[in-house]
Design goal:
Helices cover 38% and strands 14% of the residues. The protein contains 13 helices and 11 strands. Helix 7 links the parallel strand 6 and strand 7. It starts with a helix and ends with a helix.
Length: 348
């Protein structure tokens, strides 16, 4: 999910430099709702590469692949930009360009494939299939790398130290009806407590203490979840405070509903998880906790994002070798640290 949101600022740059630009986007099916949030995006093509790679000989795979590429080939493109720099993404780009070359008249050239150069790509072998290759230093945040790549590929100047502007169109979004029914009116925070590694969790006791402080400040709290483990955790956290001031949804919320929920939130507190990138792109005041992961290259970023890092953040620890390291990974991430930062961010 982070890769998708990291691309938005580059699209905003391109839209500002080239007002007539139209972009179509190929994205994994699970994230197909997201690209259309940006006004420069016209068509969104959802691809199921992960599924196809797992079942390449399935009777359903070949027709699905053919249908996918036939749909794309109905539009004529000038440029195909591989923003990922991976073999799987350039495979899609080549299939699109190859079919276009066969179907066009000889006087109309097929689209060029562009991307990072050998030193810049995540998988350098992918660059062998680009006609245009651009240098972009790796020791930069993914957002800046994509902005630099887009500027070179579309030939416009990217100003130095330009602020991050995601540029999402949320003008038609409103506070989810289900939220109004559960909590009524008033300001609320969203606590994003679920993540992939156990070592990235923030202790439940900390969430409970933060919940109490938040309620005392007159702010309600929403605790969304995506699986059974997260649902149980959310209910345990919420049960530590009055029920009319916290809301745990009965069912998992759709990505669009979660986005609307985040968009109208007063603030967000999050561990290192994909949804933190959604909140960052929506310019919601947010504090993100990096316990064992380093945010410098791929962390949530934006004008209203505060990142708190423990001394173990650069270590990428999926497991703690001992209790001492486990406790060290919480330094700088105390409840007081988090509470003070989120209240300062939302000016309460």
């Amino acid at each position: 999910m982070g890769d998708v949101f990291h691309t938005f600022p580059a699209l905003s740059d391109a839209q500002a430099a080239l007002p007539d630009l139209t972009v179509d986007w190929v994205v994994e099916k699970g994230f197909a709702d997201i690209p259309a949030w940006h006004p420069v995006v016209d068509k969104v093509y959802s691809v199921e590469l992960r599924k196809w790679r797992k079942t390449p000989w399935s009777k359903a795979t070949r027709p699905a692949m053919n249908a996918f590429f036939e749909t794309i080939h109905q539009t004529q493109y000038d440029l195909i930009l591989d923003a990922q720099g991976l073999l799987k993404s350039v495979w899609v780009a080549r299939k699109v360009a190859k079919k276009a070359a066969k179907s066009r008249e000889k006087k109309v050239p097929p689209p060029l494939i562009a991307g990072y150069d050998w030193q810049s790509a995540r998988e350098p072998l992918a660059t062998l299939f680009y006609q245009k290759k651009y240098p972009v230093a790796k020791a930069q945040h993914a957002i800046l790398r994509l902005r630099q790549l887009m500027a070179q590929a579309l030939d416009y100047e990217l100003a130095k130290d330009q602020v991050i502007h995601y540029g999402l169109d949320t003008s038609l979004w409103s506070k989810p009806k289900i939220l109004m029914e559960a909590l009524g009116g008033g300001e609320y925070f969203v606590f994003l407590h679920g993540t992939t590694w156990e070592s990235k969790y923030w202790p439940e006791a900390y969430w409970m203490e933060l919940l109490a402080l938040t309620h005392a400040a007159g702010v309600k709290v929403v605790l969304p979840w995506g699986n059974e483990e997260e649902r149980l955790r959310a209910n345990r956290i919420a049960s530590s405070a009055p029920s009319n001031k916290s809301w745990v949804p009965e069912k998992p919320l759709s990505l669009n509903t979660v986005a609307q929920l985040l968009n109208t939130a007063k603030g967000v507190v999050s561990v290192d998880t994909g949804l933190s990138h959604v909140a960052a792109a929506l310019d919601v005041p947010m504090v993100v906790l990096y316990r064992v992961t380093d945010p410098k290259l791929v962390g949530a970023d934006g004008t209203k994002v505060v990142r708190l890092e423990s001394p173990c953040a650069p270590d990428y620890l999926k497991q703690f070798p001992n209790k001492e390291i486990e406790m060290r990974s919480l330094q700088g991430l105390s409840v007081e640290d988090v509470f003070q930062n989120i209240m300062r961010s939302v000016h309460l």
